[in-house]
Amino acid sequence: MHAPSQLNARPEAGRQPPKTRQAARVEWPTLGLLALCYAMWVFGTTAASALALPLGIVVTGLAIALHSSLCHEALHGHPFRSQRLNETLVFPALCLAIPYARFRDTHLAHHRDEFLTDPYDDPEANYLDPTVWVRLPGWVRAVLRFNNTLAGRMLIGPMVAQISFLRSDWRAIKTGDRAVRDAWLWHIPAVALVLAWLWFVPMPVWAYLLAVWLGLAILKIRTFLEHRAHLRASGRTVLIEDRGPLAWIFLNNNLHVVHHMHPEVAWYRLPALYAARRDHYLRRNDGYVYRSYAQIFAAYFWQAKDPVAHPLWPGRSDGDA
User: Fold this and answer.
1) Res 18 pLDDT > 60
2) Prediction pTM value
């Protein structure tokens, strides 16, 4: 789970999520992974923290990142046919920062592929309208330029996204958006469950907040270059052919164009689907592909892949990088 980018701040009124095919009656791999995720989280906040607090922070941060990926599965209809049951399974707000209902609504809106990277109509876009960009103070532009490197996205990205997200949602609540208000009200008991647990375990709250930051930083690796500016909507979504631990934490969402084309397909079926029609997907996204996350770290850890201002948006000028 990660805060949607809301820097351009146009409201989302009237947006309808795409419909997806119902999941199988019970998807046991997803259900088993949910159990493993909560077991990791319990271990991280208890035994691991008692043994060595840095170990507890790392284990808990990994569990938080995995839980976010499982929230993503839940909103797409997994592991049960009942959406209410799916959402009950991921109800505790392990990451504290993002209400599940807001993640659900903005992410489903993001699945309208014709609007991908649109600074206003894609809630997860990382690009800014160039006319917004040029009006920002110099220090804000410096922060956002650093945020466009992978190092920046991991180090300050969670805070940059959260500040923008909170500002946007507060504006929506003040203008009477009941869906946003209700999402935050439901978030209170979801956070209270986590805080109540922390009252009884060895991990202090400050250490848990570091674990949250770690979990969100890991998720920023996935979202860093998921979508690019491209004239064709079908060419905007990446394929990362990694099969390592990050792909597992992200539940194969690194095969992102496959997920966008088949959002109803469970995470554990995506690799076989991709392998069976690899050439088709590469044609579909105009060859926007990376071999691994190691390649991405090597290329973009200290270097921005994209400008902050949308390079294809009306109003773009040479000074907008």
Assistant:
1) no
2) 0.90
